UniProtKB/TrEMBL annotation:
Upper taxonomic lineage: Bacteria, Bacillati, Bacillota, Bacilli, Bacillales
GO BP annotations listed: amino acid biosynthetic process; carboxylic acid biosynthetic process; D-amino acid metabolic process
Designated name of the protein: D-alanine aminotransferase
Pfam families: Aminotran_4
Assigned keywords, A-Z: Aminotransferase, Pyridoxal phosphate, Transferase
InterPro entries the record matches: Aminotrans_IV, Aminotransferase-like, BCAT-like_C, BCAT-like_N, Class-IV_PLP-Dep_Aminotrnsfr, D_amino_transT
UniProt cross-references to SUPFAM superfamilies, sorted A to Z: D-aminoacid aminotransferase-like PLP-dependent enzymes
């Protein structure tokens, strides 16, 4: 049996139900998180749960559970589903009420849903590197919120998939922002450059962990917007995200990055990041 959580209750997935007028279903009016599980343990769980509370606050939604309560519910779900390597997905919507753009009046409770899924580490892609395309970033101006509204992301990711690529690197005019489902960094002369955490990108937990590792290891980095020209002349490019960890990018829009192989700075970060996973969750 596969267990899920609906409104705080652990249920058999086949009997779990959400109303057709749930505001997440109708408007994408909600927020979500994806947390990586290694050896049955959450990696950077607290950071993800704190960001969930922050995202909810930014859309004026108050969550009925504290991060600590959510953490123990997620632990229960992971253990009931006997998950070893995978993800836990959770989302809160502004609840169920007759369709109306205005927030529901009174104390309509948010709908809370969570489930787990087995997801292997993408070891082969991490070893060889992946191909990407470029795409104009057509999303709204609050990409810092991990909202359920992902249409802009989906259209770009679909374009990438149809081109046989792993990711679409998004840009607003000349400025690179992030990927359709990951953050993007470049390496030039040994310095890592990644877009600053503002309203144009999701401040990835993986991105933050990578920068923390850089600080601890005295690896130079800059948090600033970089251009398409800087991207095309970068020595190395990598993507970072919960499911993909640190992923070398070896091609952008048909052009090789550097010599077309994962570079040494990215390799070093991959190893340091793996070390951090093992420190939190045990040997991989
Ligand atoms: N995506 N930017 C975007 C647009 C993302 O969707 C994600 C993650 C990231 C990386 O964030 P983090 O390191 O916290 O996972 C950056 C998740 C995994 C998803 O939607 O499936």
């Amino acid at each position: 049996m596969e267990y899920v959580i609906v409104d705080g209750e652990v249920l058999d997935r086949t009997v779990a139900k959400v109303d057709i007028e749930d505001r997440g279903y109708q408007f994408g009016d909600g927020v979500y998180e994806v947390i990586r599980i290694y050896n049955g343990k959450m990696f950077t769980g607290k950071e993800h749960l704190n960001r969930l509370v922050e995202s909810a606050g930014k859309i004026r939604m108050k969550l009925p559970f504290s991060p600590e309560e959510l953490e123990s519910k997620m632990e229960e779900l992971i253990s009931k589903n006997e998950l070893d390597t995978g993800i836990v997905y959770m989302q809160f919507t502004r609840g169920t009420s007759p369709r109306n753009h205005v927030f529901p009046a009174g104390d309509v409770a948010p709908t809370f849903v969570a489930y787990t899924r087995k997801v292997a580490r993408p070891v082969e892609s991490m070893e060889k590197g992946v191909r990407t395309i470029l795409d104009e970033d057509i999303r709204w101006l609050r990409c810092d919120i991990k909202s359920l509204n992902l249409l802009g992301n989906l259209l770009s990711k679909q374009k990438a998939a149809e081109a046989g690529c792993f990711e679409a690197i998004l840009h607003r005019g000349e400025t690179v922002t992030e990927g359709s489902h990951s953050n993007i960094s470049i390496v030039k002369d040994g310095v890592i450059i990644t877009h600053q955490a503002d309203n144009f990108i999701l401040n990835g937990i993986t991105r933050q962990k990578v920068l923390e590792i850089c600080s601890n290891e005295s690896i130079a980095f800059e948090e600033r917007a970089f251009t398409l020209d800087e991207l095309s002349s970068a020595d190395e490019v990598f993507s970072s995200g919960t499911t993909v960890e640190v992923m070398p990018i070896v091609e952008v829009d048909g052009k090789p990055v550097g010599n077309g192989e994962p570079g040494p700075v990215t390799r070093n970060l991959q190893n340091l990041f793996k070390g951090e996973i093992e420190r939190q969750c045990g040997n991989l």
